[in-house]
Amino acid sequence: MRTAIMIFLAGMLICTGLPAFAEIPWPVYPDSTVHRIGNSYGEFQYYGGSPYLHPGIDIMAPAGTPVYAVKAGYVKAILTTGAELHWRVAIGDSSGSDECNAWLYAHLSEFSIYNMAGLSVGDYVEEGQYIGDLVTWTVAEFHHLHFVQIRHSGGATSWSQYWNWLFVTNPMDELGSVFDPDPPVIENAISSQLFAFCRNEIYSYFAEGAVLDGDVDIICRTYDYQNHPAWRLAPHRIEYKIDGDSSLPWTTSVCFSGLLYYEANTDVVYQQDATCYTQGDYNVRDFFFNVTNTDGDSIIEPLDRAHSWETANFHNGEYTVTVRVYDPSENMTEESMTVMVGNYFELTGYIHVEGSGTELPDARVTVVDGGLFATTDSAGNYTLAGVGGGSQVIRVSRPGYQSRDTVLMMNQNQSLDMGLEELLYVCGDANGDTVINLLDILYLISFLYGDPAGPQPEPFEAGDANADWAVNLLDVLYLIDFLYGSPPGPEPLCP
């Protein structure tokens, strides 16, 4: 457990741009100068079979280049995973069988390991000691050292079982010099649109410019170069935010640091469908990242697939989606696009008299933001269609009853039952003295136009003499007509 916590904390430190490890030299000379990278940690790879996350970095160098240990330690394993091209050496931190970290150097020639470097399992190796030469790779101009830190335990037999190793560190986070003058690149994900949007875990895409609704995945097409423009790489980390009436702060999407389960979780990070088709081989590299498949930490795990932009939790309207992409040198590229969100749900329920449960007809149920309303039928039931998403204030009111407000999260169809408490008041009696006269007219004028404004009618509905669901100048004129008109106007109605 302690090991897992330390790996997690190390990943978090790196993903926030803070140093987490002591620097190590490069394993090929010159060891203090940055080298070209042909494949990055966590990069999408597919050469037939099943796709996977590349568990290491590929340092480009000519065939026959000598390779040197970046740290002193003990030879834990010498083996090949596939004939002459795939011989490798693991040099660990300890000589015993306890779990330890080891640096793995792959694609060395078998002859150079055994006959030139003279290595055997169990040998002690000094930092900077020669351990072998690079083989000649089958793809022209892709001779390379596969380099990564692993973790394992047990004796020589156990260490030879390479399928059980844990890949625990992105070497770019530990190398002493990773200078890279070129920031990552963000391309349009589909046609003329910067990002693509699809329904969560369903390869059903919104048309360009369409209004978004429901649970939405955001797809970003991006790549990086690390001193070698011939080979596109996966970036080091990606984060995103959403700004608008509601908002989502900067959230880590993916960070290729720390523990990497390379044979799993490929589809957590990368989108691979007919619209956004991620590819990674020697001919084509095109990376589409599902930036919303994250719980906000730096660990890539299956449950991250369930996460998305839950637009129904946001009010309808315009939002800005922004994505930042970083390389190991902390070069950053940021791009934004504006989208529209539009979710609509149905609100139903039953309004009754508080304390008795008796149905309350002609009550008004209003969405305060926008004024959408419905009136209860003779049985006290109502249906309010087209309520926008997000947190909504719902007001229930009726003449002669105390209005009530409540807040609903309208992220789905909802039901709201509510009781209203009966009030005793005289319609048009704005000042509450039980009679309607000039004082009520003056009371309303003071409330509407006083400086400072006078107190509001109590209850508020008593001031709505013309029953138009508002208290304004029309109510003042209504009362004047009722009291002083010739002939007198109609009696106050109240809503």
What are the segments in which pLDDT stays under 50 over at least 5 consecutive residues?
Answer: 1-13
Task: Write the CATH homologous superfamily of the largest domain.
Answer: Glucose Permease (Domain IIA)
Task: Tell me the span between the first and last alpha carbons.
Answer: 66 Å
Inertia-based shape: rod-shaped
**Number of domains as seen in the coordinates:** 4
At CATH level 2, the architecture of the largest domain is Distorted Sandwich
The description of the largest β-sheet is: 8 strands, antiparallel
Beta-strand residue percentage: 25-35%
* Strand-pairing-aware structural class: mainly beta
- The total beta strand count reads 31
The amount of helix comes to: 10-25%
Number of helices: 6
Q: Average pLDDT, to the nearest integer? A: 92
CATH class category name of the largest domain:
Mainly Beta
Radius of gyration: 34 Å
Which topology of the largest domain does CATH recognise?
Glucose Permease (Domain IIA)
